[in-house]
Amino acid sequence: MTLYHLSVKIIGRGSGRSAVGSAAYRSGEKLQSIAHAAYQSGEKIYAEGDKIIHDYTRKKGVVHSEIILPQNAPKEYADRETLWNAVEAKERRKDAQLAREVEVALQSEFTLQENIELLQKYIQENFVDRGMIADFAVHDTGSGNPHAHIMLTTRNVTLDGFGKKNRAWDARAELYNWRENWADINNYLFEEKKLNEHIDHRSYKAQGINREPTIHLGAKAWALEKMGIRTERGDYNREVKRRNAEREVRRTLKEHAIAQAVQRIEKAHAEKSAQALKEIEEYLKAEKADQIVEKLRQQREARQEAEITARHMNELKESYITLENELYELRGQEANIYTKNARILEIEEKQTAIELEYHTQKLLSETNPNIQAILQQSQQKSRPESVRERRLREQCEISLNSIADESLQKIIDNASPSIREKLVEIQNKRVIDRAQKSDAPEKTKEKELEPELY
Is the pLDDT of residue 186 over 90? Predict the structure, then answer.
């Protein structure tokens, strides 16, 4: 059966105890302590330098004892008698706190070696690594109550010995950590061994358990109870167990009553459900014909809607074909219109050219007949044109061109936009032709014929 127990108490001179004697009792050894000033044990006062023998070699049940030192502790403190006499020597007060003792219950599900290794790891991580010297002993008389006593120093230690008291180790938070870590390290070993066991460091109240905790009997009360002698602690624990048993009975009865109530409720619910299902079945049977008729009506309506949709789709298809044919015809008409427009533009261009030629001939006929006759005569002569004749012809051409340009500009101003563009092109072409003609090599001939002017 799993059991959680961890208690912490102080071993002090105020209660008449000795660190050496406590260590001898827990380890089952014979140790000698040296009395110091103000050392008092019970009613007897020892003078400084007196030697006191603590012999517990006949004590049974001590199956293992060990001292674990931190790295900065003197090596000679590995001897139990040397260690605790050094502690006694450092404490000068008659009410001095000599050591701190942590008592833990070991699990009977673990072997002795597993419990020892568990203790070594726990002591190293929680006490020795913090700077304490730990002296622990494992007790197991075979009565099903294996446990361990861990005596811890209360002062900082160096290679030169003990220093000041370390008050940080007295904090209540440290106690909570030690309790929780002891539960965790045991539960980890339970899981590693695949045992369905678990211990909890919290109180019954914190765990939500409606039970009273018992108290620790202690060695003396446990020995008296074993001999059949009733003790106050034993009576208290028996009364607590009786009350816990009554609570368990009441809890069981309450759970049984709740279970019966739940069964009754479930039975009533099942009966109501069956009745409701029966009523539903009867209702369905009565309404079955109406449902079939309604289903047929819905199918008929769906079929009619499908037929209407099909007719509508056919109408849309025919409309699409008609529109496509009309579009084809319109595209053909558009091509014919384009051809007609091109023909109209061609006719308008010809009309413009004829109109231009007409106006040009009209202008020529309206000019000086003599100039026209001279131009015709000069063209009919077979001999070369003289310089005088050429100059006269050029003057006539200039006058004719000036008259033609003015008349052409008037025509352009009064013409329609489409004809105006063509007339402007003709006008520009005339200007370019006259410019090119003026650049011809006529100067050479002029020089050759220049004497004839005189």
Answer: yes
Alpha-carbon distance of 159 to 215, in angstroms, equals 41
Give which of 16, 9, 23, 20 is closest to 38, Cα–Cα.
16
pLDDT tens, position by position, 256-288: 888 888 888 888 888 887 887 777 777 767 666
Q: Which domain holds residue 416?
A: 367-453
Domain boundary among 157, 185, 201: 201
Global pTM?
0.52
> What's the rounded Cα separation, in Å, for the pair 23 and 136?
9
Query: Tens digit of pLDDT for each residue in 356-374?
Result: 666 666 666 655 455 455 5
Q: Look at residue 297 and tell me if it is in a domain.
A: no
For 327-447, strand residue ranges (E) read: none
The residue out of 201, 235, 263 marking a domain boundary is 201
- Examine residue 293 and state whether it is found in any structural domain, yes or no: no
Any alpha helices (H) in 77-231, and if so which ranges?
80-90, 112-126, 172-192, 204-207, 218-226
Query: Token pair of 306, please?
Result: 């499908």
pLDDT per residue over 20-50, tens digit each? 999 999 998 989 887 654 443 333 444 445 5
Report the domain count for the chain. 2
Cα–Cα dist 388/449, whole Å: 9
Q: Look at residue 339 and tell me if it is in a domain.
A: no
Residue 399 lies in a domain: yes
Inter-CA distances, 293 with 78, 296, 299, 302, 411, Å: 102, 5, 10, 14, 93
Look at residue 290 and tell me whether its pLDDT is greater than 90. no
Residue 95's domain is classified under what CATH number?
Answer: 3.30.930.30
